[in-house]
Amino acid sequence: MLRHSDQLYDYHVWANDRVFAHLEQLPEEVFHAEVTSVFPSISQALGHIYLFDQLYLDVLGGVPNEEIFVKMPGWKEETQGKSVGEMRQLFANVTERYRDLLRRIPDPDKAMTIEHPRYGRLDTRFSDILQHVVNHGTYHRGNVTAILRQQGHPGVPTDYLFYLMERQG
């Protein structure tokens, strides 16, 4: 049985994979089509998820803010102009790094403190930050669904309940 934090991250990966599999069935132009929404395109919405998955991977790994902030423009650049398949590979690479980190964490509820230059200090737990990663992805996958619907395409169900049902079956 997976630890709860591992299961939540597994859900995040499962949901992202479902979105990518769905996008791969649609015309490539859907991925880059400009719309009026929270993000101007699906590719940019997924690029945002990617950037923040990278950021929080470093936060969870104890990397200092100064080192993280200088990497952010590069992470954003990595996603520019990518195809669905190329973006999916970027996500797969980050997933492997998260899974490696999770394997090395004996106690996912270990206390940690994060400091942000604008938002201040937060005394929290590793698992709370991982929960934030999952919630952030869920929120923005909803943006992807909205953009798909604007373009006349259905979304794909990525609710946690569907993940649990699939795992049980």
What does the model show?
It is built from seven helices and two strands. The relative contact order is 0.19. With 169 residues, the protein is mainly α. The model has no long low-confidence stretch (mean pLDDT 96). Strand 1 and strand 2 form a beta hairpin. Strands 1-2 form a two-stranded antiparallel ribbon. Helix 1 (4-24) packs antiparallel against helix 5.
Features:
single chain, 169 residues, mainly alpha, two-stranded antiparallel sheet, 7 helices, 68% helix, 7% strand
Element-by-element helix/strand order: HHHHHEEHH
Helix content: 55-70%
Q: Give the percentage of residues in beta strands.
A: 5-15%
Q: Span from first to last CA?
A: 15 Å
Give the biggest beta sheet.
2 strands, antiparallel
Strand order of the largest sheet: 1-2
What's the structural blueprint in terms of helices and strands?
Blueprint: H1 4-24, H2 28-32, H3 42-60, H4 65-79, H5 84-104, E1 111-116, E2 120-125, H6 126-150, H7 160-168
Antiparallel strand pairs: 1-2
Helix pairs in contact: 1-5, 1-6, 3-4, 3-5, 3-6
What's the quick description here?
The chain is mainly α and 169 residues long.
